[in-house]
Amino acid sequence: MSMEDLNQFRARIFKSLADPLRLQILEFIREEEKCVCEIVPHLGVSQPLVSRQLKILKNRGLVTFRKDVTRRLYSVTEPQIFKIIDALTPKIRTSLSEIIVEQML
User: Fold this and answer.
1) Which of 36, 35, 63 is nearest to 47 (CA)?
2) What is the spatial distance between Cα 84 and Cα 59, in angstroms, rounded to a whole number?
3) CB contact set of 66 (below 8 Å; sequence gap of 6+)
4) Does position 30 have pLDDT exceeding 90, yes or no?
5) What's the predicted TM-score (pTM) here?
């Protein structure tokens, strides 16, 4: 994989993580698989919206599903993704905010 291909891959993953609802979905299914019927009430949003976000996550390879009779149970494909998510701490937010303020002065 060339560096250009790698950077395009990274950009697609970061774009997938750029939506707060998708991050909430990932966090909710972090430890165990869940069906849309569990995700919707947990997040308090419509089923079509959750399904649309799951499709994006699935197309990016971040989640997968298995059929269980009439339900699809979604799970995280690669738990390593949480290393990236968890690295973005309030401390980093504060540090970056301070840098932005300093650059504005």
Assistant:
1) 36
2) 19
3) 33, 72, 73, 75
4) yes
5) 0.88
